[in-house]
Design goal:
By secondary structure, the chain is mostly helical. It has 12 helices and 3 strands. The protein has helices spanning about 5-10, 15-25, 40-55, 60-70, 75-110, 115-125, 130-140, 140-150, 160-175, 180-200, 205-215, 225-245, and strands at about 1-5, 30, 40. It has a 3-stranded antiparallel beta sheet with strand order 1-3-2.
Length: about 250
């Protein structure tokens, strides 16, 4: 037999908690002496271990009492349901980890964090795949969706993501030089080449995605660019083509 103090020490459960379990009828000591002191049996210790295990799975005490008092209670079904909940929570945490990893990559490539862009980036990751599907069907044809589905998610394509982040950072560093400068024209050319490669030469799809960037819609798994970059690249590309046409 074990006193309440000894059981508390063995199980790392406070005496106050054991007394509370006794008060609500969850764990009654097997024996009390004439002085009213509680003593627990080996069976009580096994029962306490069971209670703590279910409590660790975040079952409420009322449900645990049902487990212990009702032999017909569908414990297997309830545990199976809890397992599904845990798996769903794990999946949600993976999605959050993915978003955080992308934000970390953005911060690492910027000397000063642009928090507006970072928050916009975070919102650009639909947590629900069904929501992403609805957004894509709203804007893109089946063929365009096939191309978009070919993109690796940021955490799977760290090298490709870094190329975009580095190019965006170069644009930020040259914003003061103006879109007609040699530096801007070089950046515009590289930007167009990267877009052409990314969208497999589908200029119409690239324009759709760029338009959604301007409208700040959470359309893809990738981050969106701040307005200054969009405006700069738009003007630089326009000047690039105008300069080419004037030479023809």
């Amino acid at each position: 037999m074990y006193s309440i103090g000894k059981l508390a020490k063995m199980s790392h459960v406070s005496i106050r908690t054991l007394r509370y379990y006794n008060e609500i009828g969850l764990l009654l000591p097997a024996h009390r002496n004439e002085a009213g002191h509680r003593f627990y049996s080996d069976e009580d210790i096994s029962k306490l271990h069971y209670i703590l295990m279910l409590k660790d799975l975040e079952f409420p005490l009322e449900t645990i009492m049902q487990f212990l008092s009702n032999r017909e209670f569908d414990l297997y079904g309830v545990l199976s349901m809890r397992k599904k909940m845990i798996l769903a929570e794990q999946e949600e945490l993976k999605k959050r980890e993915s978003a955080v990893n992308t934000l970390l990559a953005i911060v690492e490539t910027q000397e000063v964090a642009d928090w507006e862009t970072i928050f916009n980036t975070f919102n650009a990751f639909p947590a629900d795949e069904s929501l992403l599907k609805v957004l894509w069907e709203k804007h893109f044809t089946e063929e365009e969706q096939r191309i978009l589905n070919g993109f690796s998610s940021p955490e799977e394509n760290r090298e490709g993501e870094k190329i975009w982040l580095d190019l965006a950072q170069e644009v930020r560093e040259n914003l003061h030089k103006g879109p007609t400068s040699p530096e801007a024209q070089s950046l515009a050319k590289r930007w167009m080449e990267l877009v052409d490669e990314m969208y497999q030469g589908n200029a119409e799809l690239a324009q759709k995605v760029w338009k959604l960037n301007k409208e700040r819609e959470p359309h893809l798994r990738f981050f969106i660019f701040e307005q200054e970059i969009i405006t700069f690249i738009d003007q630089a590309i326009r000047h690039y083509f105008e300069a080419r046409e004037s030479k023809l």
